[in-house]
Structure formats: structure tokens, C-alpha cells
Amino acid sequence: MSDTISFHVHGAIAEAVVDNPPVNATSASVRQGLAEAIRKVEADPQLSALVIRCVGKTFIAGADIKEFGKPMADPQLPALLELMDHATKPIVAAVHGTVLGGGFEVALACHYRIALGDTKFGFPEVKLGIVPGAGGTQRTPRLAGLETTIKLTTEGGQIDAAKALADSLIDRIADSGDLAAAALAYAQQLVDEGKGPRSAGALPMPADDPALFEEARKALSRKMRGQSAPLRILDAIRLGYELDFDAALMRELDLCRESIAGPQSKALRHMFAAERDVARVPDLPADTATRPVERVGVIGLGAMGRGIVMAMASAGMPVIAVGLDDGHVAAAMKAIGKMWSSSVAKGSLTQGAMDKRLALIATSDDPRDLGAANLVIEAVTENLNVKKAVFATLGQVTQPGTILASNTSFLNIDALADASGRPEDVCGMHFFNPAHIMRLLENVRAAKTDPEVVATIMALGKRIGKLSVLSGVCDGFIVNRMLSKRSREAFFLVEEGASPAAIDKILLSYGFPMGPFALGDLAGLDVQAAARLARAANATERELRADFVEQMVADGRTGQKTGSGWYSYDENRKASPNPQTDAMIAAHAERHGLTLRDIGEDEIRERLLYAMVNEGAKLLDEGIAPRPQEIDVAMVNGLGWPNYTGGPMFWADQIGLDKVLATIERFRAQQGDAYWTPAPLLVKHAKAGRGFYA
Ligand code: 3HC
User: Is 193 tagged catalytic?
Assistant: First the structure.
């Protein structure tokens, strides 16, 4: 047997046990070992059935992603499953943990399935830009019907064992936690009852429902705009109506292989690996101690503070929420209650869960109450002096060793660290708005932050379900610093003659959820104007001149909340062109004697995106971002950079850094050194013919 499969015999029942850490993926040795186990059972007249189960925390969680793009050793997964289809003795899958992708396909090709009660099932292939390749699109509809199949395969979510049972995707849920024993007993029962093998492929496809496919196609084109895999998966399911089972499996495999070879899957697989890489901070030993965090304090209960309180309580973390005074605290708790109540009304949260969350929140208007917290997150107004005063207080009212984190978006955390008197305990935890929803958390290591503090906040991020990315201290950290370059170019492009709507459209078609101007209107132009003001001392004359947001704010137009900004908004916040914006741009050009020109789509897209790539290269050069992975993960999850391009640094590598550099040099000649001097690292890599990723 192979080194990842052990074979055991219990009377007439054989057992093939997969042990291929970390997630029992169907690597070559697993495929080989399972094929051998099936042949052995077939050949041995003493054996009547085979149970396949896994050790460790999960049943097979998919094909081995690390094998993709490389020649695959035989047997390939579909060939293994074909062996199962033709086996003459029953094969039982005993599943637990997360039964995903190729693992789910193995289970569905087995003739019977028994699961632990807390097992989860899904087809995450779509998230990797892949069409399932081992019968997922053919066996699932025959067992569970079209609706469940379409949802599972095109959205990549998971269902629990109860739903899997109701949908005939499994046959029984084990009564006890002893899955191995339950599976052997089940196999014995099947043998005793004379039950033979059965293949899902022998079942008919459910009645066709073209309208359901059409509806799904429309919804996916909207929800997963720009991605090719979801629609290819629908095509794959339809093969069941066009071809017989075996031919459909072969064609499904072709679609799977084509999708793996495509650029979107390459980028999405890069994102999968990068998300896991960023959890391991390069210069922080894996065994660095973490400090216990049993209660978190949040000081400052504006929109960000409230979101952080919600994020903590939703994750089961006790919170002490401290506001300026009674009024602020009451208003914050009212707002939090309102948001959760609306989730209860929509059915996405139960009243019981909401009550539990509320019970975790203690409130106060006295910072001294933060003495009971192990970690305090400061989310007061974005003003350095105000924040310094808060850190000075926190340094006094909290216990030594309590971690003091700032949620600032761009202020200097080293200055806050000094103000606290305990700089080794100070760091940044920069949440994105709305903090209880956005997955990204930029953790910031300041000059004197203790390694234990870094390890603790990275672990805390994971514990509360966030994707933590470590950044160093600089103006705006990773996301906002890169975003500020895109904003600069967006304003310059408007000054030069591009319309905000045209610019937004170009980024929308690149794959961003919205363009810079729609985003400004959503976030509030007053917020953007305040950020520009805070940075004015370091701004160039041209940057100061492009003062569109200041003009709109002075005019009372702060975006969606006032019904007018770059766009006009109706009562449902639906956008339409805003004549005031056109008039403002025309008057601005006249006032400053600017000549407007026609700007091509390529130039607009490249200026907006390459400005960010170049800044990303500077972040790497300066060591603010430890690796390109941090930048790609942060930009995809913080700014909505389309994940299927792999984030800015991966995307630039695919274009070729020599080409990116040549374009940047062209912009430099046109726009000036102040904006387009290429980052030294970009030049170095471009000249060496390599990318940001080795
Ligand atoms: N292949 C290879 N390695 C995998 C893997 C896979 N399918 N899935 C996870 N891993 C690795 C991770 O890279 C990570 O490695 P690292 O420690 O070196 O970084 C390790 O397993 C642990 O993964 P996580 O950190 O994600 O652990 P969690 O416990 O948080 O999550 C999981 C476990 C739910 C299984 C999660 O890893 C996951 O969702 N994995 C992806 C599953 C997937 O996409 N399967 C489909 C693959 S495509 C396919 O099957 C095609 C088929 O149709 C032919």
C-alpha cells in the first residue's frame, strides 16, 4: 500500500485509511493507494466491502492544489472514481471534517456515505477558478437535484450534514462520535442485507429546468462579475443533459483542465496560497509566545469603534466599550442594537445569538474601566494630538503588558507608542469600514513593538475571523497608501479631461466593485477632504490644485449621504450623472487655464493601476510590506482589487515588469518625476527579467 494509505481487515470488511496531512488531499500516493485497496478487495473472495475513511481533522478536502499545473501521476482522480463505479463490492465513504472538492467527489463516487453530524460539504473549486473535474457536476445533480447542485458548485459555499442527508448526498449520520466503528457496522449491515454497489451515475439526471439555469447565469454574471469559472460550471452541469454519464465525465474533465490552465485559476490559486502565507510573519518565529486576550477594550465609539465592538462580540469576545460620555455610549449601543435587529429581521441572525452578543458588551464612559482588558483598541477621532492624549491615558489606566492598539488609518503609530510610555506594548490594528463585515485587518508593527504583541494580534485577528496582514508604519500603511496614489491619478485625470464616470467605468470593467468616484461618494467626500487636509503639508502644488472634493464639501455636497457628490443620488441611493460635477470641472479648468484632452482607456487604466503597483514596489523596498503577498492580500480584501487577477503585484508580474516599467517611464516623461519615478525594486527586477515573486 502507498505511504499515505493503510489497509486493515475486520472480518469481511476492509478499510482503507487515508493519512495525508495537512488535509488528506488526493495526492498521487493517495490515488495510488486507494486504487490498490479497491483492487485488493475485488480480488479477495474473503472480503465483501470496503470502507474509506481518513485520520486527522478532516476527510479528503480536495485535489492536491500543489499538483496543479504539473504533470499528474496516474491514476488521475477520475480514473480512480471510475474504478469505484465498476467495483462489484460496496464501497462506503466514512466522512468527517470538511468534505470538499475532489474529496466530495470521492465520497459521491463511493456507493454509500456515512458522516459525523458536524461534517461540512462543499465544492470550493469555483473559488480557485476551477470547474470540478471528477464528477462533481454529474453525480451531485443526480443525487441532490439541480438547485442544490447549482448553488454548491457555482458559489463554493458549504452545507451541513443534515442538509446533505436531506438532499440524499449522504445516507446516514453516525449516532456516536466513533465514525470508524459506525462505518464498519454500516458496511457489515449492507453486506448482511445483500446490498450491492450502486453508482450515482446510474441514476437519471433530474428534470431539466432551463429557466433555473438562465436565472443562475444572470445572478452569477452580476455577483461574480468578470469570473469565468461559475459560468463554465453551469455549462458542465448541462453536460448531463447533452451526453451520457461517461461522456459527460470526460468533457467535465476537459473543462476542469482548461480552467486550471487559465489565467484566472492561476491568480486565484496564488491568492489561496498568499492568504495562508501572510499568516506566517517572516521574521517572527512560529513559537513566539502570545499574550492571553480574554477581554478587549474599545475606546471611541464612532462608526469604526462600533464596528470593532460588533466584530469582537460577534466572535464571542467580551468587550468593554468606552465612549466619551453617557450620550455617546447610549447612541453607540442603540446603533449596534439597530444593526443586529435588522439582521434578525432578515433572518441572518437569531434573536438568541443577538442577545448573547449584547451580553458580551460592557459599557462605560470612564477609561479607567479599561484596566480590566488585556488589549485595548483606540478608535477615537483621527487627530494626532487627540490620539496621543488617549495613549497617554491608556498607558496609565491599563495593566503593564496590556496591548494598546490604534485603529488609525494614517497617523504615526510610533508617536502614539511614545505617548503611551509603554512603546513595546503598542501596535496598530487597522480595521476597514464596516469593521464587523470587512475581512481585512492591517496589523501594524511599530518601531518598538514587542514580538509577542505582533504574534498576539495576528492570532487575535484569526480568532475573530479576520484576514490579518502585517504592515510597518508609514502614512496609510499598505492599502491607504496605495489607494492615495490611485486617488491622485484619478483627480489628475479629471483635470486633464477624463470624466469621473468614464474613469469609474474603466475600473469597474477591470473588476473593481466600484470606481474611485463612486467610492468617494459612498465613503463621504468630507472624510476624503479631511484626509487630504491632514496630508496637505506633504502635497505638491498640483495635488493641492486638484481640490475637487474640497469644492464639493464647501458646496454641501458630501456624496451619497447628501444626495449629491460626484454623482446625484435618489432616495434609494441610485446614482445618476450630476450636472453640478460637470460644471465644477469646467469652471476648474477655466480658472486654472487647463487644456482638456481625450484620454484613451488604456492610459486611464494604466495610470490608476500602475500608480499602485509602483507604490507597492516602494512598500517592499522600504520593508513596510514584508512580501508581495501582504500587498496582494491586503488590496484584494481591503480595496476590492479583483481576486481573479491575483492582486497588484502578481498581476504586474503576469504583464512583465519590463513592460510595466516602460509604461511608467512614459508617464514619467509626460507627468513628471514627482509622481512617476519608478521604485528602485521595480527597476531592479525589471532589469533582471524577474517578477516581484521569484
Ligand atoms: N491541496 C493542497 N494543500 C492544501 C489543500 C489542498 N486542496 N487545502 C489546504 N491545503 C493546505 C494549505 O495550503 C495549508 O498549508 P500550509 O500549512 O502549508 O499553509 C494547510 O493545508 C492547512 O490549510 P488551512 O490553513 O486553510 O487550514 P484550515 O484548517 O483553516 O482549513 C480547509 C482547512 C477547510 C480544508 C481549507 O484549507 C480549504 O478550504 N482548502 C481548500 C479546499 C479546496 O479548495 N479543495 C478543492 C481543490 S480543487 C479540486 O478538488 C478539484 C477537483 O474537482 C478535481
Answer: no
- 204 vs 224: CA distance, rounded Å: 30
Angle between helix 351-359 and helix 303-314 axes, rounded to 10 deg:
110
Identified catalytic residue from 480, 564, 578, 614? 480
* Statement: residue 209 has pLDDT above 90: yes
Domain boundary among 422, 454, 476: 476
Q: Which domain holds residue 676?
A: 601-688
- 551-591: per-residue pLDDT in tens? 999 999 999 999 999 999 999 999 999 999 999 999 999 99
Nearest residue by C-alpha to atom 38 in ligand 1: 61
User: If you measure from the C-alpha of residue 605 to the centroid of ligand 1, how many angstroms do you get, rounded to a whole number?
Assistant: 34
Cell readout for 499 is 470624466
Domain-located, residue 325? yes
pLDDT band of residue 176 (cuts 50, 70, 90) is confident
What is the pLDDT, as a whole number, of residue 159?
A: 98
Using an 8 Å Cβ cutoff, are 12 and 188 in contact? yes
Quote the CA–CA distance of 603 and 600 in Å, as a whole number.
5
- Burial environment of residue 21 by CB neighbours within 10 A (0 to 12, 13 to 18, 19 or more): exposed
Angle between helices 210-223 and 146-155 (to 10 degrees): 20
- The pocket around ligand 1, CB under 6 angstroms, is made up of 22-23, 25, 58, 61-66, 77, 98, 100-102, 105, 124-125, 128, 130, 132-134, 136, 256, 276
The answer to whether residues 435 and 491 belong to one domain is no
Pocket probe for ligand 1: among 18, 23, 237, the residue whose CB has the most ligand atoms within 8 Å is 23
Give tens-digit pLDDT for 122-148.
Answer: 999 999 999 999 999 999 999 999 999
